[in-house]
Amino acid sequence: MQAATTTLTSEQITLDLLPQKFGKRGMIWTGSLLVIALIGAYAYYRQLKYGLVVTNMRDYVSWGIYISNFVFFVAISLVGSLITAILRLANVKWATPLTRIAEIIAVSAIVFASIIIVVDMGRPERFLNLLIHGRLQSPIIWDVIVIGTYFFISLLLLYFPLLPDLKLLIQFKEKSGKFLNRLYRFQGSFWKGTRSQFRISDRAITILCIIIIPVAFCIHTVTSWLFATTYRPGWDSTNFGAYFISGAFLVGAGAVVVAMYVFRKAYRLEKYITENHFEKMGRIVVLLSLLYLYFNVNEYLVPAFKMKNAESAHLNQLFTGEYAPMFWFAILVGMILPICMLVFRRGRKPVPMFIAGIMIVVGAWFKRYLIVTPTLLHPFLPMQDVPQSYHYYFPSWEEWAIALGSLAGALLVITFFARIYPIIPIQETITEQHEKTE
Amino acid sequence: MLFALGLCLCSFINAGAQDSTRPELNLTVSYFMKDNKVIHLLINTKAKIDSKFQPIPNTVVRLYLDKAEDSLLIGKVTTTRNGFAKAVFPVSLQSAWAASPNHTILGIAEGNKEFDEVSSETTVTKTRLALDTTTSEGKKSITVQVLAQTADDWTPAADVEMRVGIKRLGSILSAGDEETFTTDSTGTVTVELKKDSLPGDEKGNYILVARIDDNDQYGNLSLEKSVPWGEPLVVDKNFFDQRTLWTTRYRTPFWLLFMAYSIVIGVWGTLVYLVVQIVKIKKLSENKSS
């Protein structure tokens, strides 16, 4: 990037990075996502009308694909703190073009994590009861508090660096149109770019970067405690917090790599998201994959070595039983193959990186499904005198539609954000450019 | 050839006849009396389907005292999904009940699409139980007498098997070494209490029970009596007052409250400060333009 942008002028950068209208591909992409989201909304309407009976969740598997999806969204949201906060605090300049991508992924993921939890409740009008009658002793309440907090911090972290860009956007009224210009004015007309405004903004961003790291760790640790504080095979682990955080960092980094590639292609941002960015992100992804693999070895090898009765049924089903194809797919495709690809310099080129990113994200989704469902099918007490269907779980079409609809919804948020706001910070890129030329 | 054809035809007709055979409804009416006062009837309907007895729900059963006459109707009940129904003996039939020492309870299950009408009879001799307790030289004994009604008097009922024990949650703990006891020629059973130091209620009371189950002549009878023979139960009332992780929201441990509120106030305090910074940025702009 450094080499490529040294000749770019501020005007050129501004014009390159201003939000662009959807092209034909963009329209097809957005339309497809809208259709999937609408099918999901219809499935949810059916769930509201007939109750949770339209799902295949029953007495034993009471946390199905919805909670898997929730854990997946929470995991992806952690990327905001990695790219934005950790790299910013470490004064890693190359990550600047990726910060906003990471932040919008974090915001959209956390929004849909909250939505999917309400969907799982079955009776959304009772959501307030969580706050009115909630017990502070319950990790569920901690999760509600920490998700709300993380969402707010992520919004602020998205908003503060956006202020200088809003000033630029307001100047391009003809390009953005009346409606968007009114929106930009509402959000940032007060930004004049004075030194004192920058000083306050920079300090606020630094505080946010510091505060988001423990909160981000909390959100994923608390989510892991929803499982680990329950005495069940597969969940009864003191390692779960670290295991979840390492997995979250990996899937978040994978999602950023995918988004980097897509935005680079769609908006022709090769001058700003360079091969060097993929090279560096590739190294981070390899490190995170190895870290997550290490925790996986711990999580599965130690109980497998002991093979306690209750654990053995669960582990055998994962290693060689019904869930074995999915389990080995998640391990191989989600961790081992990306490591094998990205450990070589050639593998850290944009296209292989994009493929590895997709593999990590897909593998991570199935990994969350494996964390939730097989354990619920192996309670400590035997499953007796229950209908045969209680012994198995496969999501109903409504569950698939809602889960896919929520994924489409999260992608829609990112898509519309990229349509309205610059996906790469314009002002920061210009400032860095000036610093370099000086 | 003709013979073989005839044989096939016969088996076909026979099979058809078997197919059209409706399963037979099995109806039982059981008589229950508690504490020599309250009488109720328990009705059960089941049928053998696929070589297995299955409960038959939604069966309407009419119950009569001695004869199937409207004036002697005890009640009309419908079985639940478990195939059971319960009817309480009505006050209106008290004089008819008192008129004779022996009665027949007649149950008629109405026919429907699946089953034909069936009836069942249960003959009952009116019986009374008496339970007495004695304590001598530190030994506690329970005496139960069974008296059956004859034409003009109550006479002891011999050879009646019963359970005598202490009422526990969902069952009876036998007072003696045997599970059941049988009355002698005087209609009496005497059981020495072998279970010491059983927990009672807060005052040390527990309930003794004498129970006759499914007796062909007397039905199901039970009598209870509270005795102060148990160990007083000490209820740890402080258990639910503790501030622990498993109690209600009003008993959250102080350390958790302190930690949670400190974190929430610390983080949200900072966030409020940051929102104030946005307002400050806005004000700086206003000052500049003014």
Explain the overall architecture:
- The complex is a heterodimer of chains A (438) and B (290).
- Chain A has 438 residues and is mostly helical.
- Chain A has one domain (2-437): Formate dehydrogenase/DMSO reductase domain (Formate dehydrogenase/DMSO reductase fold), CATH 1.20.1630.
- Helix content of chain A is 75%, strand content 0%.
- Chain A contains 19 helices and no strands.
- Chain A has helices spanning 2-5, 10-17, 24-50, 65-77, 79-89, 96-121, 127-132, 139-159, 162-171, 173-176, 178-188, 195-228, 240-266, 275-306, 309-319, 324-342, 350-376, 397-420, 426-437.
- In chain A, α6 runs antiparallel to α8 and α13 runs antiparallel to α17 (350-376).
- The longest helix of chain A is centred in the middle third of the chain and has 34 residues, at 195-228.
- In chain A, 46% of the residues are buried.
- Residues 1-5 of chain A have low confidence and may be disordered.
- Helix content of chain B is 21%, strand content 42%.
- Chain B has 290 residues and is an alpha+beta fold.
- In chain B, strands 1, 2, 3, 6, 12, 13, 14, 16 and 17 form a nine-stranded mixed sheet that branches. A four-stranded antiparallel sheet of chain B has the order 5-4-7-8, with no helix packed on it.
- The model of chain B is unreliable at 14-19 (pLDDT under 50).
- In chain B, 23% of the residues are buried.
- Chain B starts with a helix and ends with a helix.
- Chain A binds chain B through residues 133-137, 142, 145, 149, 152-153, 156, 159, 163, 190-192, 194, 196-197, 200-201, 203-204, 207-208, 211, 215, and chain B through 244-249, 252-253, 256-257, 260, 264, 267-268, 270-271, 273-275, 277-278, 280-282, 284-286, 288-289.
